[in-house]
Amino acid sequence: MMFGSIFKSIVDGELKEGERLPSEESLSEKFKVSRPTVREALARLRAGGLILSRQGSGSYVGRPPNQPILKFTDLDSLSDIQRCYEFRLGIESGAAELAAMMRDDNDIEQIEAAYGALDDAIKRGTLGTDEDFAFHLAIAAASKNHLFYSVLLSIKDQTRFSMSLSRNLSRDRSVARQMIAQQEHRAVIDAIIRQDAVGARNAMHAHITQALNRIFFGETSGQQPIGKLKEYSA
């Protein structure tokens, strides 16, 4: 995904402030996307202040997001895992809602590709943690608000850890858990496709709530709402 790749390079400092980006033609060839897709990605980066355009000269890297704001602590206890999921509830539900309003055909293609990659990972018998995170990241990108993408990227390690934990807690039911999660993912995608903002928000909220329940209770049918979770200590 071109937008995500350039965004991450700026945040990670691989692309320095003031550095000139390659031409649209070069970016199109590198990421194997059309010129209109390149222009759209650059427009989104420009709108977020991550790149600047100079007439007749091209696009240059702007000031990166404030790094201290993007740093989150590691998950050291079950309580931290619970808080991470609760944080994601607000962030990702909002991103899904906005994605349903702002998405275009390219976004749907990226989300479907991420969903398919996760499906393939499940069929191979792997945990699919990277593919799962990529799916959620694709939805954040579809919101067209780089802050959603930035925040989710900043908790990548914590999110991947909790995803791995969910899949490892019960090996005998891991495939069943993943397939249920895929059904929840599908509900989010379908709402985004039909541009149902409320439906997308609710579907993502339900998915993250169930993911947390699966970690603490091993449940898949929603009998234990998140509001009844107790505070866990280390």
TrEMBL record:
Xref: InterPro entries: GntR_C, TF_FadR/GntR_C, Tscrpt_reg_HTH_GntR, WH-like_DNA-bd_sf, WH_DNA-bd_sf
Domain HTH gntR-type: 1-64
This protein's name: FadR family transcriptional regulator
Keyword annotations: DNA-binding, Transcription, Transcription regulation
SMART domains attached to this UniProt entry: FCD, HTH_GNTR
Signal found in the keyword field: no
Record CDD domains: WHTH_GntR
Keyword 4Fe-4S annotated: no
Annotated GO MF terms: DNA binding; DNA-binding transcription factor activity
